[in-house]
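ok here's Bifunctional protein PutA:
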Amino acid sequence: MFHFTHSQANPLREKITATYRKDEATVVAELFQLAQFTHQEQSEIMARAHVLAEKIHIKQNKLAGASAFIRDFSLSEDGHIALATLVESLLRIPDETTRYKLVWDKLNEIDDWERYAKHRKSALVDLGGLGLRLRQKSHDDNSPQATWVRVAEKNMEQTFRMLAEHFTAGEYFADAIKIAKKKAKQGYHYAFDLSYLPAQTQAEAHRAYDDYERAIRLLGDETGKTSVYDNPHLALKLSALFPRYEHTQRDRVMIEFYPRIKALYVLAKRYHVAMLIDSEESDTLEMSLDIMEELLAEHDLLGFEGLGFTVQAYQKRSMLVVRHLIDLAEKNQQKLMIRLVKGAFWESEIKSAQQRGLNGYSVFTQKAHTELSFLVCARMLLANPAWIYPQFATHNPYTIAAIEKLGGSQAYEFQILQGAGETLFEQLQHNKAEHKPQRYRICAPVGKVETLLPYLVRRLAESVAADAAARHLIHEKNAWIQPPQDLVLRTQGKPNSHIVLPRFLYGRQRLNPNGLDFSSDMVLIRLQELMNETFDAGKIHAQSLIPMKAAHGNTISVVNPADHNDILGSVAFMPMAAMFNVIATAKNMEKRWTNTSPDKRVELLLKAANLIEAYMPELMALVIRETGKTLESAIREIRQAVDFCRYYAQEAESTCAGRAPIGTVVAISPWNAPLSVFVGQIAAALAVGNTVIAKPSPFSSLTAFRAVQILHEAGFAKAALQLVLGDKEIGEALIADTRINGILFTGSIEVAQKIHQKLAERDDLPVFIAETGGQNAMIADSSASLEQLCKDVILSAFGSAGQNANALRILCVQEDIADAMIDKIQGAMDELQIGNPMDISTDIGPIINQEAQKRVLAHVDKIKSSARFFHQIVLPETHTRYATFVPPTAIELHNLEQIQHEVFGPVLHILRYRAEDLGRMIDQINSKGYALSVGVHSRINHTINFAANRIEAGSIYINRDLKSVTAGVQPLGGHGLSGTGPKAGASFYLQKLTQGKWLLPKRFSRLGQIDANALAVVEQIIAEGSFSREEQVQFALALGKVRNNHTLRLAQLTLKGQLGEHDVMTWRAPKHIWLQGGTLATSLAALIPMLASGMQLVIDSQHPLVAHQASLKNWVKLSEDPMNHPNISHVVCLDKPLAAWKQKLAQRAGAIVKIMDASDGHLDVLPLFEEVVFCNNKTAMGANFNLLIPKESDKK
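and the structure:
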């Protein structure tokens, strides 16, 4: 049975869960009723706020140095963003070469620094100006090793350390305590944040735990105070103390981790040190509440008033969380500190919800709504002084004035970030208000500069974002201090119009597939019930779904690869004798289905998408049990299937509405994508009017059977969509039948080559789209964030047990960070949970069957003896008896020659490289022949561009994992040994399944450019030749067409995706197109569009163009034997290609060569281009600045 979570017994906790992603306007309406003041109170608050605002404004204008940098920091300025990248990265880079390159890269991004720096007087801006002035004096040397770069780097290092000193309390706690004692004389208290990143290994967690222990002892010993209120406080980041602090690992958290947290608090009680559980991403909140509930009930902590919790006002649940904490404190007769903050992970919450297709956001999208929430929570906290000691972290003058009014003479405190709010505290301390807070506390990070600076960049971005509206209205002080109640009257509680709900990410015509929130117990409880109901439904007995009756062939049982005792049902294979009628049925249906209106086909596809979503729990249960996918992988399968239906419906309605289908299509899909690829192939073919015969893998037949039942339920006729179940003989029979007009295949390159060879026997050229595997690499230089890199490596290499075409196979890491990276990967691997995916805690499920298991283990056994480093997780004995698991394995190679073929399993190969060898290493990766997915991790744009332009890949992921595949945004597909193209989920895919000339995309973010030099050479050859009038007319028409129409050469298309990601489609012209046959005239006519598009050709020694090869040498190469040219990717045939010639070409080793028949004089160059998508994670630096910039709806 499926096991996900336990039910909540507390009604208030249930209400907290129910409010997680509640409609924003509804929540705001509830808050608004609780945020009102009397007219007299409001007048007094506004008067006080005006005084504060005026004094702060005057003081801020006099700031200099690091404080001025904060004042002037702009989220929309390229200069400051470049500097922020330098602050985040420079000091943690271990080697000088990469540091110099980073400085050179960022300073070269800003051309007009004088204009930019004109009104900015901070040290960092002056530093950038110094760097560029040095560059200007070095006209002859603008390389990363130039003297000016070295000087700038040294100055930057000193300035960044100064910046760290301004915003932190020091590297060591002894230093921090000295600062705290000094500030205490000025009336300030301190709270320290160890500023750890979330732990990824047990070693990191233990180091953090030891530091917390030392900090508690030092604070207790050095201060000598017995009051938890007067002593410095500690912010306790739970994720830094346990490497799997995740909702899906709740059992581990409570069993393994909770006792250690309790021990820390018992120690803190002994030393009178308050510790407040820090705020983190919203999906950990309820687990943190579980821990706080346990702590408040602990007898050993009875009477300790240093227990604390941080509440984020930007969360929709914040008011209910405050109410629950108050109830807990009263119930346990235990006073509790509650720190109220705005929230520090806003951009990641938005991005995550969009990425996962969740039902709304956990946070408010309007800043005014967060301010309102803060005010309501503050009122609740101040209303319960017997049980709550409130701490308020805000810089907002109105909120401060309101809290002073509400607080009266009771105990509470204000808090600021060190270096970002001292001006405010000075005004508050010297105010003459009737009521003051009891304490002013400065929150300061402690730690090494190298780790603190990335943390500071995030905090800086969030701090600036929180006050962006205020600084935007710095000269409009009345607007600056407007009560949130008034602002909410303007917004009417509506969400920010610039931040669409996840459901409408791609517009209202193409809904974002529904996802499931695995951090919500309410969702998990219901999902668990629905998925467990599938057991009650009994076994599934699948058979082919065809209109006519047919006898069954062999029947096989289907077992769960994670538990061979779990028998799901059986599959009856179709007998070979029935195949002739299956194809005949599809052919007879062609005319009727073709004549079905595009609108009707779209309607059926959209209905199918909705039904798949409706059957989500059932399909998830089936996918998990039949193919061993984890819960996360299963939901991804279903969402991609739904998305393909909607995307292809949209494309069919627009781009392909008037195009004729090719006829009958066979869709052959793999077990590792039992719904996404299976449904995607079918949806694409049906969308444009083709009839479909679907042949799934024998290992995913039950899932395919149920999927086709759902498609038939949506209204697709059984004759238009037939399901045939069977082994490879069935597939071979379908491929061999000349009545088939197209083959859609996803699987291994070896099988794809066999299909290609069979199709070559035919006289015609049936459509063949093959999506095969990839020797996918990730390249990381020493500027990469080790934490982000480790997270992406683990997910990309071991997710779905490595059984994805786009899984990471080779990590290439710069030698300067290789040892640290390998240690981190090893520790993170040890935290992975391998087991039955029916348990939510499972990270990695089984390999599909014993044959696949043996292949992967054989590779590991062969290579491990010669490995530089080898690490493999030890499997429990129970996992080796009745299941087919392969333990996650990491192997460091000596060179890339040690891996020749794709290894389809959880095996990561690691190769370290020298920085100067980056280009050679990329060439070695390219020499493998695959070109599917590649990742690049770097903070240096020059390095990213160099690698991306040199590498052969269909998808290039920048500073992120390789797993994301979204139709129309991050479409998957490659070239070379990775497939024939076009990409599934991109606009050319449907055009390939229809007849006629291909159409360009309707909009470009950058227009293409023809190769004018190449065209000039062709024109010169034509001018000097003797051609007939008809031939000259053809030349003129061709030349006019390429000059007047757009080209894909150098063109870009920005794809609409989630916030924080920048996705761009580009097209690369092949460099080795064999131009076969033709006369001189037809060859020149073909050259015009191809050379204008940037393509390079190969001809044999007998070709008519040989006479002009000297003039064309930059674009046309001579080969004695093009048939065996190793790099030929396409053939353009100006003479009719004969079957014998095609068969010989198909026998070549290596990638499938695509043939285009242009013997009729009509050459369409668009199908020759290779699609390449760049997926850039703009949040990699720590915050998505563009997302944080306040939009108009925030300012109204």
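+1. The chain is about 45% helix and 15% strand.
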